[in-house]
Write a structure and sequence with these properties.
Elements: H1 2-16, H2 21-28, H3 32-39, H4 47-56, H5 61-75
Helix pairs in contact: 1-5, 2-3
Amino acid sequence: MIVEIFGKVLRDLRIERKISQEKLAEYCDLDRTYISLLERGLRQPTISTIFKLAQALDLSPTDFIHRVETELGTVQP
C-alpha cells in the first residue's frame, strides 16, 4: 500500500508542477519508464531516488515523505 501511495503522491506533485514524466526523468537522470513504474506503484524507490525526485520537484525529501505519510493517514482506518 505504501508503494501505491508513494506513486500517487509522485504523480500528483509532478502534475501540480506541470512536468512530464520525460522531463522529470531527465531532471533526475532516470529512465521515463522507471518514473511510470514508480507512479503506478510497481517499483519501490531507493533513498537516493527519493532525494533526486524531491530536488527535481523543488521540495525537500522530508516534505515529500511527509506528503506520503499524510496521504497514508487519510487511507488507513
